[in-house]
């Protein structure tokens, strides 16, 4: 195999690995690139490698996505395989049978591979709205801030950080694992969200301040119920999910504030940025 061809296959495998573990919409996976590779070669080894990078991945085996997601993924993979008239690949059908035999749950996992190794794994609800809140699922704005934080760790290193509306914990956990803050405070207003968030903190090998077994080399982590009408800020950095930041603005020494939110309504976006004294949002999946 030519070096450039080998490089292309490695990039394809990495793309499947990262995207599948993060459980995006299936159409966002690199299916077209896979089809092109399968047309160029009748070898089934590539599909075996994709299985090892996705449903057979150690992270996925330990913390699987929803049964429905895995079933849809394998069904699509089998469809791509059959389209090139290859011999049946037993491993694909065996994986599908194992998935169909698994018990469906209201919870599933997303795992985000970190640039320097390791991952952030989240257990979250499968329903967009559950227990009267949307905070039990991961939203694009959290992913946006997490990616920005990983690229700008100095904004958080050795500093105390407060997040208003922590949700599933993606942003918090990525910052705690990569950026080495001195202290991090998780806050959300819904009890079910805080309960799930606490589980995700422990799932990722971190401990809350009250835990006597807390790792002394990890940031000091605390969690508290959030009342949007009474927000007191004493931290260096505040991360917010597009809500009221008056408490920050009234501080004599205002902290650095980073905000990201999904733009579902342009008027709401413009009203929010006007209140902050910023220009209106530009079109995009999230407004930083």
Automatic annotation (TrEMBL):
Pfam name, any one: Methyltransf_16
Keyword S-adenosyl-L-methionine: yes
GO cellular component: protein-containing complex
Keyword terms: Methyltransferase, S-adenosyl-L-methionine, Transferase
BP GO annotations: methylation
FAM86 N-terminal domain: residues covered: 12-98
A GO MF label: methyltransferase activity
Family: Belongs to the class I-like SAM-binding methyltransferase superfamily. EEF2KMT family.
Protein name as catalogued: FAM86 N-terminal domain-containing protein
Organism the protein comes from: Pan paniscus (Pygmy chimpanzee)
Lineage of source species: Eukaryota, Metazoa, Chordata, Craniata, Vertebrata
């Amino acid at each position: 195999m030519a070096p450039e061809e080998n490089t292309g296959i490695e990039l394809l495998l990495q793309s499947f690995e990262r995207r599948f573990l993060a459980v995006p919409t299936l159409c966002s996976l690199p299916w077209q690139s896979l089809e092109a590779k399968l047309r160029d070669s009748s070898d089934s080894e590539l599909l075996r490698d994709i299985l090892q990078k996705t449903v057979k991945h150690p992270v996925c085996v330990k913390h699987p996505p929803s049964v429905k997601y895995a079933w849809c993924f394998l069904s699509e993979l089998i469809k791509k395989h059959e389209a090139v008239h290859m011999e049946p690949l037993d491993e694909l059908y065996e994986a599908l049978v194992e998935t169909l035999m698994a018990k469906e749950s209201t919870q599933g996992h997303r795992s985000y591979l970190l640039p320097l190794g390791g991952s952030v794994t989240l257990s979250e609800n499968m329903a967009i709205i559950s227990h009267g809140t949307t905070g039990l699922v991961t939203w694009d704005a959290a992913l946006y801030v997490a990616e920005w934080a990983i690229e700008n760790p100095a904004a958080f290193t050795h500093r105390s950080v407060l997040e208003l509306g922590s949700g599933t914990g993606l942003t918090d956990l990525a910052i705690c694992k990569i950026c080495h803050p001195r202290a991090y405070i998780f806050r959300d207003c819904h009890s079910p969200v805080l309960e799930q968030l606490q589980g995700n903190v422990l799932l990722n090998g971190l401990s809350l301040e009250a835990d006597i077994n807390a790792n002394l080399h990890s940031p000091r982590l605390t969690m508290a119920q959030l009342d949007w009408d009474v927000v007191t800020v004493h931290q260096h950095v505040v991360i917010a999910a597009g809500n009221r930041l008056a408490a920050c603005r009234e501080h004599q020494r205002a902290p650095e504030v980073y905000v990201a939110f999904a733009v579902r309504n342009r008027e709401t976006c413009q009203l929010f940025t006007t209140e902050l004294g910023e220009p209106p949002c530009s079109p995009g999946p999230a407004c930083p």
